[in-house]
Description:
Layout: H1 5-20, H2 22-28, H3 36-54, E1 64-68, H4 74-81, E2 85-90, H5 93-105, E3 112-116, E4 127-132, H6 141-154, E5 155-163, H7 168-179, H8 195-206, E6 211-221, E7 224-233
Parallel strand pairs: 1-2, 1-4, 2-3, 4-5
Antiparallel strand pairs: 5-7, 6-7
Bound molecules: S-adenosylmethionine (SAM).
Amino acid sequence: MQESNYTRRRDQLTTYFDETAANAWRALTSNNPVSRVRETVRAGRDEMRTTLLDWLPPDLSGTTLLDAGCGTGSLSIDAARRGARVIAIDVAGSLVEIAEKRAAREGVLGAIEFRVGDMLAESPAEVDFVVAMDSLIHYNVNDVQAVIAGFVSRARHSVLFTSAPWTPPLAMMHFVGRLIPHRHHRAPSIEPIKVGELMATLDENHRQDGWRAARTRRIRSGFYFSQAVELTQC
Ligand SMILES: C[S@@+](CC[C@H](N)C(=O)[O-])C[C@H]1O[C@@H](n2cnc3c(N)ncnc32)[C@H](O)[C@@H]1O
Protein backbone atom coordinates (compact mmCIF):
# COMPACT_ATOMS: atom_id res chain seq x y z
CA MET A 1 0.00 0.00 0.00
CA GLN A 2 1.26 3.49 -0.84
CA GLU A 3 2.17 5.55 2.20
CA SER A 4 0.00 8.67 2.33
CA ASN A 5 1.31 12.15 2.91
CA TYR A 6 -0.54 12.14 6.24
CA THR A 7 1.08 8.97 7.58
CA ARG A 8 4.53 10.02 6.34
CA ARG A 9 4.20 13.36 8.11
CA ARG A 10 2.77 11.74 11.25
CA ASP A 11 5.71 9.34 11.40
CA GLN A 12 8.18 12.23 11.13
CA LEU A 13 6.32 14.03 13.91
CA THR A 14 6.39 10.90 16.07
CA THR A 15 10.18 10.71 15.84
CA TYR A 16 10.54 14.44 16.38
CA PHE A 17 8.24 14.83 19.40
CA ASP A 18 8.95 11.44 20.96
CA GLU A 19 12.75 11.69 20.73
CA THR A 20 14.41 14.80 19.27
CA ALA A 21 12.26 17.47 20.91
CA ALA A 22 10.88 15.62 23.95
CA ASN A 23 13.11 17.40 26.49
CA ALA A 24 12.54 20.79 24.91
CA TRP A 25 8.77 20.24 25.06
CA ARG A 26 8.97 19.11 28.67
CA ALA A 27 10.80 22.36 29.51
CA LEU A 28 8.63 24.65 27.40
CA THR A 29 5.43 23.28 28.92
CA SER A 30 6.71 23.38 32.51
CA ASN A 31 6.95 26.35 34.86
CA ASN A 32 10.76 26.19 34.87
CA PRO A 33 12.78 29.13 33.54
CA VAL A 34 13.43 29.10 29.78
CA SER A 35 15.24 31.46 27.36
CA ARG A 36 13.68 34.86 26.53
CA VAL A 37 12.64 33.60 23.10
CA ARG A 38 10.96 30.53 24.55
CA GLU A 39 9.28 32.70 27.18
CA THR A 40 7.45 34.56 24.39
CA VAL A 41 6.42 31.24 22.85
CA ARG A 42 5.22 30.02 26.24
CA ALA A 43 3.21 33.22 26.75
CA GLY A 44 1.61 32.87 23.31
CA ARG A 45 0.76 29.23 23.93
CA ASP A 46 -0.74 30.07 27.34
CA GLU A 47 -2.92 32.70 25.67
CA MET A 48 -3.97 30.23 23.00
CA ARG A 49 -4.86 27.54 25.54
CA THR A 50 -6.89 30.09 27.53
CA THR A 51 -8.68 31.20 24.34
CA LEU A 52 -9.62 27.63 23.40
CA LEU A 53 -10.79 26.83 26.92
CA ASP A 54 -12.84 30.08 26.97
CA TRP A 55 -14.65 28.84 23.85
CA LEU A 56 -15.91 25.82 25.82
CA PRO A 57 -18.69 25.94 28.44
CA PRO A 58 -17.30 26.97 31.87
CA ASP A 59 -18.66 23.81 33.49
CA LEU A 60 -17.65 20.72 31.55
CA SER A 61 -19.12 18.21 34.02
CA GLY A 62 -20.75 15.28 32.27
CA THR A 63 -19.04 15.99 28.94
CA THR A 64 -16.28 14.18 27.07
CA LEU A 65 -13.47 16.06 25.39
CA LEU A 66 -10.92 14.70 22.92
CA ASP A 67 -7.53 16.41 23.29
CA ALA A 68 -6.11 15.49 19.88
CA GLY A 69 -2.30 15.61 19.98
CA CYS A 70 -2.25 16.26 23.73
CA GLY A 71 1.55 16.57 24.07
CA THR A 72 2.45 16.99 27.74
CA GLY A 73 -1.22 17.38 28.67
CA SER A 74 -1.64 21.04 29.70
CA LEU A 75 -5.04 21.45 28.03
CA SER A 76 -6.23 18.02 29.16
CA ILE A 77 -5.42 18.88 32.77
CA ASP A 78 -7.24 22.24 32.58
CA ALA A 79 -10.30 20.62 30.95
CA ALA A 80 -10.34 17.84 33.57
CA ARG A 81 -10.18 20.47 36.34
CA ARG A 82 -13.35 21.94 34.84
CA GLY A 83 -15.13 18.61 35.07
CA ALA A 84 -14.63 17.04 31.64
CA ARG A 85 -13.82 13.41 31.05
CA VAL A 86 -10.85 13.72 28.73
CA ILE A 87 -9.51 11.33 26.11
CA ALA A 88 -5.96 12.54 25.52
CA ILE A 89 -4.16 11.10 22.50
CA ASP A 90 -0.68 11.63 21.16
CA VAL A 91 1.66 9.68 18.91
CA ALA A 92 4.62 10.60 21.11
CA GLY A 93 4.64 8.09 23.98
CA SER A 94 7.33 9.96 25.92
CA LEU A 95 5.18 13.12 26.02
CA VAL A 96 2.15 11.11 27.12
CA GLU A 97 4.25 9.69 29.99
CA ILE A 98 5.08 13.24 31.10
CA ALA A 99 1.39 14.20 30.76
CA GLU A 100 0.34 11.25 32.94
CA LYS A 101 2.80 12.23 35.67
CA ARG A 102 1.62 15.85 35.58
CA ALA A 103 -2.05 14.82 35.67
CA ALA A 104 -1.33 12.61 38.70
CA ARG A 105 0.46 15.49 40.44
CA GLU A 106 -2.52 17.78 39.76
CA GLY A 107 -4.98 15.17 41.10
CA VAL A 108 -6.90 14.71 37.82
CA LEU A 109 -5.43 11.46 36.49
CA GLY A 110 -8.72 9.65 37.13
CA ALA A 111 -10.54 12.02 34.76
CA ILE A 112 -8.13 11.57 31.84
CA GLU A 113 -7.72 8.52 29.65
CA PHE A 114 -4.35 8.73 27.91
CA ARG A 115 -3.78 6.87 24.66
CA VAL A 116 -0.63 6.62 22.57
CA GLY A 117 -1.33 6.63 18.85
CA ASP A 118 -3.04 8.46 16.04
CA MET A 119 -5.51 11.18 17.03
CA LEU A 120 -8.22 9.75 14.74
CA ALA A 121 -7.51 6.02 14.81
CA GLU A 122 -7.41 5.95 18.63
CA SER A 123 -10.32 8.33 19.12
CA PRO A 124 -13.71 7.20 20.43
CA ALA A 125 -16.61 7.27 17.96
CA GLU A 126 -18.41 10.03 19.88
CA VAL A 127 -17.31 12.89 22.10
CA ASP A 128 -18.82 16.27 22.98
CA PHE A 129 -15.82 18.46 22.12
CA VAL A 130 -12.60 18.08 20.16
CA VAL A 131 -9.63 20.37 20.72
CA ALA A 132 -6.47 20.12 18.60
CA MET A 133 -4.10 22.81 19.80
CA ASP A 134 -1.09 23.21 17.50
CA SER A 135 -1.19 19.53 16.56
CA LEU A 136 -2.28 20.08 12.93
CA ILE A 137 0.18 22.87 12.10
CA HIS A 138 2.60 20.47 10.37
CA TYR A 139 0.00 18.97 8.01
CA ASN A 140 -0.96 20.31 4.60
CA VAL A 141 -4.38 21.81 4.01
CA ASN A 142 -5.82 18.64 2.42
CA ASP A 143 -4.76 16.53 5.39
CA VAL A 144 -6.11 19.16 7.81
CA GLN A 145 -9.48 19.10 6.03
CA ALA A 146 -9.57 15.29 6.18
CA VAL A 147 -8.70 15.22 9.89
CA ILE A 148 -11.29 17.92 10.67
CA ALA A 149 -13.91 15.86 8.81
CA GLY A 150 -13.03 12.98 11.15
CA PHE A 151 -13.42 15.26 14.19
CA VAL A 152 -16.75 16.66 12.94
CA SER A 153 -18.13 13.15 12.48
CA ARG A 154 -17.29 12.38 16.13
CA ALA A 155 -18.18 15.63 17.93
CA ARG A 156 -21.62 16.52 19.27
CA HIS A 157 -20.99 20.23 19.94
CA SER A 158 -17.77 21.83 18.75
CA VAL A 159 -14.37 21.26 17.18
CA LEU A 160 -11.57 23.70 18.03
CA PHE A 161 -8.21 23.64 16.29
CA THR A 162 -5.32 25.90 15.44
CA SER A 163 -3.43 26.52 12.20
CA ALA A 164 -0.29 28.41 11.30
CA PRO A 165 -1.77 31.35 9.37
CA TRP A 166 -0.38 32.01 5.90
CA THR A 167 1.41 35.33 5.53
CA PRO A 168 3.84 36.26 2.72
CA PRO A 169 6.97 36.21 5.01
CA LEU A 170 5.95 32.87 6.52
CA ALA A 171 5.26 31.42 3.09
CA MET A 172 8.72 32.58 1.96
CA MET A 173 10.39 30.97 5.01
CA HIS A 174 8.50 27.77 4.29
CA PHE A 175 9.61 27.81 0.64
CA VAL A 176 13.26 28.46 1.54
CA GLY A 177 13.10 25.76 4.23
CA ARG A 178 12.07 23.24 1.58
CA LEU A 179 15.15 24.07 -0.49
CA ILE A 180 17.51 23.30 2.38
CA PRO A 181 18.40 19.59 2.61
CA HIS A 182 16.69 17.94 5.58
CA ARG A 183 18.94 17.66 8.60
CA HIS A 184 18.08 14.99 11.11
CA HIS A 185 17.55 17.30 14.08
CA ARG A 186 15.46 19.85 12.22
CA ALA A 187 11.82 20.24 13.19
CA PRO A 188 9.34 19.09 10.56
CA SER A 189 8.25 22.22 8.70
CA ILE A 190 5.13 24.12 9.63
CA GLU A 191 2.53 24.31 6.85
CA PRO A 192 1.14 27.86 6.62
CA ILE A 193 -2.56 27.85 5.73
CA LYS A 194 -4.89 30.56 4.43
CA VAL A 195 -7.23 30.23 7.38
CA GLY A 196 -10.07 32.33 5.88
CA GLU A 197 -10.17 30.02 2.84
CA LEU A 198 -9.98 26.93 5.04
CA MET A 199 -12.91 28.18 7.15
CA ALA A 200 -14.99 28.84 4.03
CA THR A 201 -14.24 25.32 2.74
CA LEU A 202 -15.03 23.69 6.08
CA ASP A 203 -18.24 25.71 6.29
CA GLU A 204 -19.25 24.50 2.85
CA ASN A 205 -18.18 20.87 3.46
CA HIS A 206 -20.02 20.46 6.75
CA ARG A 207 -22.98 22.85 6.56
CA GLN A 208 -25.35 20.10 5.42
CA ASP A 209 -24.52 18.24 8.65
CA GLY A 210 -25.40 21.32 10.70
CA TRP A 211 -21.88 22.72 11.25
CA ARG A 212 -20.50 26.21 10.73
CA ALA A 213 -17.13 27.91 11.14
CA ALA A 214 -18.16 30.22 13.97
CA ARG A 215 -15.14 32.23 15.08
CA THR A 216 -11.40 32.64 14.80
CA ARG A 217 -8.61 34.38 16.67
CA ARG A 218 -4.98 34.99 15.76
CA ILE A 219 -2.36 35.03 18.51
CA ARG A 220 1.17 36.33 18.01
CA SER A 221 3.80 36.43 20.72
CA GLY A 222 7.45 36.56 19.65
CA PHE A 223 8.10 33.43 17.59
CA TYR A 224 4.65 32.02 18.36
CA PHE A 225 2.07 32.71 15.67
CA SER A 226 -1.07 30.60 15.52
CA GLN A 227 -4.75 31.00 14.68
CA ALA A 228 -7.62 29.35 16.49
CA VAL A 229 -10.79 28.27 14.70
CA GLU A 230 -14.08 27.14 16.19
CA LEU A 231 -16.52 24.91 14.32
CA THR A 232 -19.87 24.49 16.04
CA GLN A 233 -23.18 22.78 15.48
CA CYS A 234 -25.61 25.45 14.22
C1 LIG B 1 3.10 21.31 18.81
S1 LIG B 1 2.71 19.90 19.81
C2 LIG B 1 1.30 20.51 20.71
C3 LIG B 1 0.95 19.64 21.90
C4 LIG B 1 -0.25 20.11 22.71
N1 LIG B 1 -1.48 20.09 21.95
C5 LIG B 1 0.01 21.48 23.27
O1 LIG B 1 -0.51 22.46 22.72
O2 LIG B 1 0.79 21.57 24.24
C6 LIG B 1 1.95 18.85 18.58
C7 LIG B 1 1.63 17.48 19.13
O3 LIG B 1 0.79 16.80 18.19
C8 LIG B 1 1.19 15.44 18.17
N2 LIG B 1 0.70 14.84 16.91
C9 LIG B 1 0.98 15.23 15.66
N3 LIG B 1 0.31 14.48 14.77
C10 LIG B 1 -0.42 13.59 15.48
C11 LIG B 1 -1.32 12.55 15.11
N4 LIG B 1 -1.61 12.28 13.84
N5 LIG B 1 -1.93 11.84 16.10
C12 LIG B 1 -1.64 12.10 17.40
N6 LIG B 1 -0.78 13.07 17.81
C13 LIG B 1 -0.17 13.82 16.86
C14 LIG B 1 2.69 15.49 18.32
O4 LIG B 1 3.23 14.26 18.75
C15 LIG B 1 2.86 16.61 19.35
O5 LIG B 1 2.86 16.14 20.66
